[in-house]
Amino acid sequence: MKLQSRLVLALVVIMLFANAGLAAAQYTFGYVVQDLGNQFWVTVAEGIKDRAAELGIEVIVLDARADVNRQLSNVEDLLLRGIDALLLSPWDTPSGGTAVEAANRAGVPVVVVDIGVSSGDIVSFIVSDNYYGGVLAGEHMLELVGNEGKVAMIQTQLGYEIPALRGHGFEDTVTEAGLEIVAKQTGDSQRALGMSVMENYLQAYPDLVGIFAYNDEMALGAVEAIRQANMQDKIKVIGFDAIDDAIEAVKNGDLAATVAQQPYLMGQTGVDTALAYLNGEEVEDEVLVEVQLITKETLAD
Predict the structure, then answer these.
(1) pTM of the predicted structure, to 2 decimals
(2) What CATH number is attached to the domain comprising 189?
(3) Beta-carbon contacts of residue 95 (< 8 Å; ≥ 6 apart)
(4) How far is CA 214 from the centre of its chain?
(5) pLDDT digits (tens, 9 = 90+) for 179-212
(6) Neighbours of 275 (CB within 10 A)
(7) Same domain (yes/no): 98, 170
């Protein structure tokens, strides 16, 4: 009888897992990502695809290629395909709101990853603790240059509410200690534009001691401009995202530091959250994912 009971229990457990897998397999998720030309978003997408594969969920990933019109058409395409949930990393908050509203009208739940939206109803927002990341960058800048001197910032697109928190954290930290923020310009999240902004800074502010870029692509552009001007020893650059190229730049000393998000985990969490919601579970309105400072020393450790 004991053996028979154990067999029955084992069959029940197997059936429960099979049913859960079957339920997940019936779902199709869509992910609209702002730009797969950026390694950060590639890693988010990998997290989404890998977690979906583990759970037996079909996932369709569409790249907006930094175009808000393509972003909306991608969302509309996915809605026509009958997706069960939309994961979204919009180009900016206003266009993200427009995309969410389209999903709301179609009755499709939305989980937003990393970049917030200005309107519409979402299930949950998966995001790094960006303000604290800026604080970490500011504290490290003070360790590198002291509390006197001029620093500048290279921003992402205007209207990016979440990356702006990085700037607020950095600015609050360094200005309170005595550093002067002399300039803020947007590099549109792109390496080439980050380089162009840095070239302008070098002309206008030859006595700069530090640069904080809101993402690594722009930071690496700034590093190249500084290298071409032979000013590597005078200006410290800190980025954000810890993409592969930035890690290499930190290793070889070109980039002073980068703040690491966890894009793969953010993607995984987005899938888990959407699935939990579809299964009737309670989910958090906002999920904060930890960040950490990456330096040559921490990499050595």
Answers:
(1) 0.72
(2) 3.40.50.2300
(3) 68, 71, 72
(4) 11
(5) 999 999 999 989 999 999 999 999 999 999 999 9
(6) 23
(7) no
Summarize pLDDT for 57-114 with one digit per residue, the tens.
Answer: 999 999 999 999 999 999 999 999 999 999 999 998 899 999 999 999 999 999 999 9
- Is 10 part of any domain? yes
| Domain span including residue 122 | 2-128+264-285
Residue 112 lies in a domain: yes
Instruction: Give pLDDT tens digits for 23-65.
Output: 565 899 999 999 999 888 999 999 999 999 999 999 999 999 9
Q: For residue 155, what are the contacts with CB-CB under 8 A and spacing of at least 6?
A: 163, 164, 167, 184, 185, 186, 187, 214
Tokens of 39: 């390694």
Neighbours of 78 (CB within 10 A): 26
Question: What b-and-e string marks burial along 46-76, b requiring 16 or more CB atoms within 10 Å of the CB?
Answer: ebbbebbeebebebbbbbbebebebbbebbe
Within-domain flag for 117: yes
pLDDT mean over 226-248: 96
Q: What is each CA distance from 105 to 5, 33, 81, in whole angstroms?
A: 50, 20, 15
Q: Which amino acid is at 292?
A: Q
Residue 47's alpha-carbon distances to 52, 53, 182, in angstroms, are: 8, 10, 38
Cβ-count burial of 2 within 10 angstroms (0-12 exposed, 13-18 middle, 19+ buried)? exposed
Q: What are phi and psi of 111, to 5 degrees?
A: -115, 125
Q: How far apart are CA 115 and CA 118, in angstroms?
A: 10
| 175 within some domain | yes
